[in-house]
Amino acid sequence: MDDDYSADGDLESNSGDVSVADTASFAEVKREIKMMNVVRTFVFALMITFSTITAEVIYVVVRFGEEDVFKSRFHTYANQIIEGFYEKVNTRLVAADSLSTSFTVQASDMKSVWPFVSFPEFERRCTGTRQLADASAVTYAPWIQGEDTRKRWEAYAAYMDHEGTLESNHTDDFRVSDTDEDSVIFLQTGRSVIEGIYYLEDGQAHDLPPQGNDTDVFPLWQRSPESAVNGSDIRMYDQMSNPIRAQALNVLMTKPPQPLSGVYTDFLIYDSNLTDYAYYSTPRAALYAPVYDSANEDSVVATVDLEFMWETFLADILDDYVEAIVVVAESSCSGRQYSFQVQGINASYMGAGNLAPDPKTFSAPSPVNSTYEAFRQIILPSSDADASANDTSSPPQLPCQYRLSVYATEEFKASFMTHKPEIYRWIVLGIFLFAVGVFLVYDCIVDQQSNRVVESAKKTDALVSTLFPSSVKQRLLESHEKERQKHLEAKRVSIWQLNHRGSITEGQAPDSGEMRIISTPKQRLKSFLHPEEADMVATGAMNEAEPIADLFPNASVMFADVAGFTAWSSERDPSQVFKLLETLYRSMDKAARRFRVFKVETIGDCYVAATGLPDQRDDHVEALTRFARTSLLRTNELTNALESTLGPGTSELALRFGIHSGPVTAGVLRGEKARFQLFGDTMNLAARMESTGVPNKIHLSQATADILVKRGKAHWISQRAETVFAKGKGELNTYWLLTGASGASSTAASSCSGSVSSSEFMTKDTVAIQSPLGAPVCSGGASEAVLMGVIGGSKLNRSIDRLVEWNTGALLSLLEKVVVSRGGSVEPLQKDSSSRDIPAGASRSFMDEMELFVPMPEYDAGLVARIHDTSGFQLPRQVRFELRMYIAAIASGYRKNSFHNFEHASHVILSATKLLKRIAYADGHANEEHGVTTEDLHHFTYGISSDPLTQFAVVFAALIHDVGHEGVPNGQLAKELPQIATQYDNKSIAEQRSVDVALELLMQPKYKNLRDCIFGDQIGRARFRKLLIHCVLATDIFEKDLKAKRNQRWEQAFHKAPAESPAEDDMNCKATIVLEHIIQASDVSHTMQHWHVYIKWNERLFQEMYAAYKAGRSDKDPSEGWYKGELWFYDNYVIPLARKLKECGVFGVSSDEYLTYAQQNRDEWERRGEEICKKMKFRCEKEGEKKRDRRSILWERDERGYREIFHKESADLLEEGEEEDNDESHHSYKEH
User: Fold this and answer.
1) What is the rounded CA–CA span in Å between residue 969 and residue 897?
2) What are the start and end residues of every segment in region (Disordered) (predicted)?
3) Where are the beta strands (DSSP E) in 1056-1209?
């Protein structure tokens, strides 16, 4: 009894102790629960208040954001309208100047005496200018000074009208628009030419009274189009009788310091005095361009008048979706204002005065205004503008100027104001209220779970307490916490090491002027790839778990390969290759997410995707075919767009697809760089579908086609005409997926004498004669003889325009570095002659200007730092415009040759740019692994990497080195053009003429700003000239004197002991050699690139020479010795040149690449060259037969040899190696 009691007593005592402790703990818990309830209530109230405030703030922010977008877009569109207006004003000035200059040249050719000049075929000559300038009419009026001259001119006009010498101006080529015809009414004067010059007053014609010999008369003589006059003969009308026209003509009669391109009149509209030959319902502007008596622009003898509806200055500037904007135009002459509404691409007349809405009434920004000064800078040369601005004594002699005021409208603002603020406010409020409700539910759940955890913790604590004393339990908890902290610290250190491994310490900021450490491509690549980290990621638990893999019985696999990529990439810098692939793959990844397609991997230029895995789906075939079609169409758009940035040939790239459906084994292959992979026969057959496919088509297997048919998509496919062979499968029937687009971006084989790249043009200053080939050969200056573009006649085709844009970008980036290297400012040259001052018949040879070497600038740390950081710097808009216009002019100067054309010049630029970039990479430098300083790089590249002017000159030389090439060698050119050959001392005729043409064109006044940026000063001008001459003449590899000088330079630079010549001369000599080798290697770079690139340009050169032979310009058939000639060229020039590139030591891996390609192409040509020569000749002969068959539908367009051929293109002739690139870049899947 006592024992039991004692026991019970102990138990009761222990129980009482725990109960007391628990009671204290429970009281503390109750206090904490009460506090938590208070906090919870406060949090709920705070969340509701915060949600309401947030919703209102969102509403205000979004509404203000829309207001800001509206104001920003308005300013953007307003500035766009003003800039577009200035551009149209300038374009029309250029068009008028070109037309007036052509009249000056034609009058000189006709040996006419001013003012007794009439132009035959006036309508045809003006059609192109009207189309380009969007002019309503073009008129011509001679300047008649004095009463005696007037009487003689009236007799001349009556004689010309009676004899009917001038043919009718009626034509069907161009009509004014209905809007234009409705807005003009011509006065019916009833006058005839024999009645003499007349003036109008109150709509009535009156004979011009006799006047003294100091009077000036501008009778309207010829007009285009005549059909717009509605039968009224307005000739002989004196334009000086109209005050508005007289004001503009007086400006032209006052000889300015520099010749004017043209003068705009004040607004032409209804004249209450009816002194004009017509009155208009909408405002117009007339542009008077002076016609000079000679090319020297000594005296104005006549005017050319282009009339424009004022709406045309504002149309086609904005995008079509832009809502209405009001533009108020004001004239400086009369101060009159007229309002126009611009909506999208359309512009319409509103009325006289300022009819724009008040911006204050609907919270719109203030109007954006242009200035008279900006307009004056366009229509006046800089010197004239300054003189006119400073000369306050003669304001009437200033031409009329316009300024614009651009106003927003309520419709424009409404296009940016939406219901989004209200929607966002309610969405945010709803989200917060929903979050509060979720929080309440979650709080209840957490509270319940917490109660369970607390109860479990109590039981665990009670159990541990029964096993260990309280002190031991505390030590266990502390030990566990220390281990956890140690583990977290180790993890943090590992992550830090991963993030900081391989980092390169950069030098001081560029503006400090001190040397910087350059991160080479190899270092950047090594800093990205770390096998040690891969070992850390790949754990050793592979053998402890089952592999992650499964079989997917219903799946579809797609292979997509970029056809022509291998050849294309051989021409480009690695960064350009990756830019293309990243752009294409990014677009395909976006489409894959849209169609829920699983991207397996990309290897090289091959994209692998699948559907039906890892998530199975019934529409796996439809989804994958939709994805393939979308990728095909989008890729064609991207390659066309990328050609302006990645260079020629990019638009010819196309995807080739192959799709097969069937079972696929898929899983994670663990180890280093573990990834999800696919295996099985379905993969192999999908790869075969791609490799046997055609660019721009989607090739489907029989299994894939059967599934599409079964799912009701039979109209998506068409069976391939021929079977295909697959390894291990034999002959297979396959299908094409119908994409619903033309798809093919292939190019037909070029003809022997047809144009491969550019159109043929003639200049306004050209006197045309016929060469033996029938192409125009011109007399006069070099640029006049070669640059054959008539503004308003023909336009560069789209492919050439893309090349012009790409070349502009390539030269612009270098030109920006040139200007930045001089401090970023552009100063005009103090002395800037327009051309070489050479007497007629004297030698124009550049050979005497060549020296042993071109001096290079010394190392300047500050200069190098500036050219390494050109971010934020941009050349003035006028300089960029002049650069593009210059390149377009050069492009128009390239003739219709198969090889020596603008496309080949662009290919040379591409190669030269690649070599210049490779020089800057410092490949092969002794300190490459540890970092190369800018001074190391300067000496390593002989100063080229530190001199942007030298780099610009090399690329510029590549641009112009073949301009005006006649398609025959220099020997034949000397026979055909002996006078030109004599001018250049019968040496390097084509090359010297190209330099002459380019420099003479560059020195024209219209490119003054461009020259200032390139030259900087007279020293820079002299250096640029020397560099250009050295580079261009280096492309003539057969001239003995030049070859001897190059050999002398090579021996002195690389084969003499360093002590035999000063270090500076040795460095300059080596730099000159490197520059010449860059341009030489670039000129024949196709021989040192991919086999397909070589075959393409080799055949074009053959076509050009074969065309010359067929035209009687060559005595020898090129096909007879072409095979052996190519082998000789490789053995004696190309391969030795590639070896010299390597010996120069500055081109890094590019020299190895060029040498490898040269040797491979030489061996391939030795094996296949004879067969290829036969096929090239066969294609040329077949193309010649096709041309002879089409001659019946050839017609002469005008006396300059323009022709148009209306025909349907026949199928491509035999294409060599069209599908040889199918398997070159396939990965291991395609080799199973």
Assistant:
1) 13
2) 1211-1232
3) 1194-1196, 1203-1205
